[in-house]
Design goal:
The chain is of the alpha/beta class. It has eleven helices and 15 strands. The protein is globular.
């Protein structure tokens, strides 16, 4: 057992090392911050960036940025009427701390503020029994939402939703979702509920049944020859959401698009890719990158998901098994979630 001043946390002690479960002091919320008693935290590919130091984070570091918990203590100056003790809240990748004065903040591009922070990168995240976070990164969880199923919506969910809501979507348009994993299984649901006709694209047919159950109207096995022609036969594809982090799918996705079609990148592709200009010019096609979303985007994501019964398919792990959850993330069906005891 730990004493009243310490908590259990899973900590990356050094670059590239495994996360270690240990007792560390319970953090105190500074001015403008809140302390959250963590209920659960989703496991994201980006947590590996923290492990490997790609985000230039310091060590030791507690990772985790899909956090659901209850407000346990307020720092000085935090609105106690908005952030009531015991209220269920969430924290995503956006770690708040925006200055509110720079050009980016004045244009409501809060994630581009030079003072903004990233949860589980710039400060300790949700792989712990408690965490502290700037109050402007905290969102209220709608009543009745399941915590474990909701946690992945704070990163994967908002990534998909914010990318789609910025498009001029017309009901009945064709949209492809390439890669049916943590992002993809949510993308099928959001596209479907926004009125798009969805084509699920995956290697092999093991995810065909679940894709159709989630709302896809078509399924194409992209491991087979002729899959691009198969997509073209379905109709003129307006959008393809690329959720698979592989550069070689960029060129083929562009080829699948119809006139004025758009490839939306919502997965981090670390290797470079090349595309010739004619493949874009002929057909007025385009490529767009979309970065997560701020607190307002998360609130809208949760509201839409709650009203439309969009849920993550999850598997839970105890805090002591963070490493197993990270190692097996590529094989998850579809999101791993750390649940506190």
């Amino acid at each position: 057992m730990h004493d009243a001043n310490t908590m259990k946390a899973s900590v990356f002690k050094k670059k590239g090392g495994d996360s270690e479960t240990m007792e560390i002091p319970i953090p105190f919320p500074q001015k403008g911050w809140v302390r959250i008693k963590v209920h659960c935290c989703g496991v994201c590919h980006s947590d590996k960036l923290c492990k490997d130091g790609i985000t230039n984070n310091e060590y030791p570091r507690v990772s985790g940025h899909e956090v659901i918990g209850e407000i346990e203590k307020l720092g000085e100056g935090v609105d106690e009427n908005k952030f009531k003790i015991g209220k269920f809240v969430g924290v995503g990748w956006n770690g708040g701390n925006h200055c509110g004065e720079c050009r980016e903040c004045l244009n409501k591009q809060f994630l581009s503020c030079k003072k903004s922070l990233m949860s589980g990168i710039d400060f300790d995240g949700g792989y712990a029994e408690y965490m502290v976070v700037p109050s402007d990164a905290v969102v209220i969880i709608p009543d009745g939402m399941n915590p474990e199923e909701t946690a992945p919506l704070l990163c994967a969910g908002v990534t998909v939703f914010s990318a789609l809501k910025k498009q001029n979507i017309k009901k009945g348009e064709l949209a492809g979702v390439l890669g049916i994993g943590g992002l993809g299984h949510l993308a099928i649901q959001f596209c479907n509920k926004m009125g798009l006709e969805v084509i699920a694209l995956s290697r092999g047919n093991t995810k065909e049944k679940v894709s159709m159950e989630l709302g896809a109207s078509h399924f194409v096995d992209i491991s087979k020859d002729g899959w691009i022609d198969q997509i073209k036969e379905i109709g003129s594809v307006q959008y393809i959401l690329l959720t698979a982090p592989f550069a070689h799918y960029v060129k083929s996705s562009i080829e699948c698009l119809g006139i004025n079609g758009k490839l939306i990148l919502i997965s981090v592709i670390l290797e470079p890719f090349a595309i010739d200009s004619l493949s874009l010019i002929i057909g007025n096609k385009s490529i767009e990158g979309r970065y997560i979303g701020d607190t307002k985007d998360i609130e809208e994501t949760l509201d839409f998901a709650n009203k439309n019964q969009i849920k993550s398919i999850i598997k839970t792990f105890p805090l002591e098994e963070v490493n197993e959850a990270l190692v097996n993330i590529a094989n998850a069906k579809f999101r791993n979630v750390i649940k506190m005891k």
